[in-house]
Request: fold
Amino acid sequence: MSQGALPGFRDFYPDQLATRNYLMLVWRDIARRYGFVEYDGPPLEPLELYTKKSGEEIVGQLYTFTDKGGRQVALRPEMTPTLARMVAAKANAMRKPIRWFSIPQLFRYERQQKGRLREHFQLNVDIIGESSVAADAELLAVAIDIMRAVGLTSKHVRARVSDRRLLTSLLVSAGVEENELARVFAAIDKTGREPREVTRDKITAAVASEDARKSIERLLANAKDLDALAKEFASSPQVLEEIARMREYLAFLAALGVGDWIDFDLSIVRGLAYYTGNVFELFDATGEFRAICGGGRYDDLLATIGGVDLPALGFGMGDVVLTEILRGRNLLPTPVLSAEYWVAAEDESMLSEVMRVAGRLRAKSRSVEYALKPQTLSRQLKSASSAGVTSVVLLRRPDYQNGKVTVKTMADGSEQNVGLDAFLDSL
RNA sequence: GUGGCUGUAGCUCAAUUGGUUAGAGCACCGGACUGUGGCUCCGGGGGUUGCGGGUUCAAUUCCCGUCAGCCACCCCA
Reply:
């Protein structure tokens, strides 16, 4: 075997690149429909851009090196810090809310596995400078509309939504102490993926109060039932306020036409520490794939990174998992990699005439191939056929001298003798 | 970082209890069907059996290591 790409990195052969381009086309189109504009930043950033937010431990998962100027640099593992910097630099000058999206290639030095490589392309969609619930609904609608655009339905994909403010108010109301919250969050985040006993053990370890633990049990039992939670914890005004916010969010999502994709699920917490409010994930309904997309509100992050205090929310959607799902469901379009026309000549000495005709077709924006070496007509047609062109423009010496060519449609073999000029004008 | 499974041509797979120059289909290139493709037939290129050691008269086949891939854990994009 010859050596391939580095582990976790991909070679994109033409058909694979066509798939990637297709996805990006959809991403750009849907983002555009929602009024988002595209930006980009450098793939290489100062290391401290990432350590400032996440601490030193993240360095182990970054591609880092010292450049020739002695700077510590890293290949970007996520886009948000770059976004924060760019927005912060011109925050005052920009109309709010800012609706930006980007499709960066991101890098992470980790053991690769299904749906997760060391490099991927990720759509990032962010709204900055708007704290209203409508913004949260708008953001999630973008992600769901992308699912629709690639042919997935609400049966295939579910959006699970929650809100850390709601979860926090519920836990506080249940009697969990401030300093216990983080560990309870972590335990709840894993609820769907590990046995109930493990979750219970973790909560027992994290929470001192017996009563609080019992409340958490009831809370988890009703994690997908907003009405039940409202009833159960009706004594807390804080909880009721948060539930009202969630109801408004769900109502807005319905108004945006994506209501049937949504499942309320309090156990969605998301690993990233910087989420402050609404959080959501998009999952394949069969559960055999990783999350397609994840995001939420991070109102404090811009102040931390960029030094500008603006509320913000966003999501990331990677190309790897989405491509796997679409391939599994046979929803990837067959890429068209063939030229439209093949110019052939009956007479092997007519190569320069072939070139002239090819040139005129190309000037008409048509994609054209022809045999680069002298070949029999039989061979040329064989090549044209295997190249997959839809039509062959055939030159015969006497006809061509009279300005005529034969246009052959490969699908049915039909031929038409036409004037070259008229044919070109018809394109 | 931990553990399990796997590794033969570009792809999908063969190769009798370890036994002679590792085969086939598809793909690719070319020829024939005497200058209009898709069919058919013929031929060709392409493998130090992932790599490195070991056991053996003999290793694709057994053992060890290593690399890579897949899966799970960890962690998250």
In short: Chain A has a mean pLDDT of 90.
